[in-house]
Write a structure and sequence with these properties.
69 residues; alpha+beta; 14% strand; two-stranded antiparallel sheet
């Protein structure tokens, strides 16, 4: 039961961090980083946030390593 409680806390913290990133990310430049692909041609818009995805992946990996111990 103890590990289940830790799992719920970890998931909750990850959701809080993701919520903060989504809410305040545009003010911090997340989503408009160098390396994010954005193509706008007439009626066609394509956006692929590759750099943003890598940074978020690194943050989530660090959080998992911290809470795994």
């Amino acid at each position: 039961m103890d590990s289940f409680g830790k799992l719920i806390i970890t998931i909750g913290l990850i959701l809080v961090v993701l919520g903060l990133i989504i809410t305040f990310g545009s003010k911090l430049g997340i989503g408009k980083l160098p390396g994010d692909i954005y193509i706008d041609k007439g009626n066609f818009k394509f956006y692929f946030p590759i750099t943003t995805s890598i940074i978020i992946s690194i943050i989530i990996s660090i959080l998992f390593k911290i809470f795994r111990k």
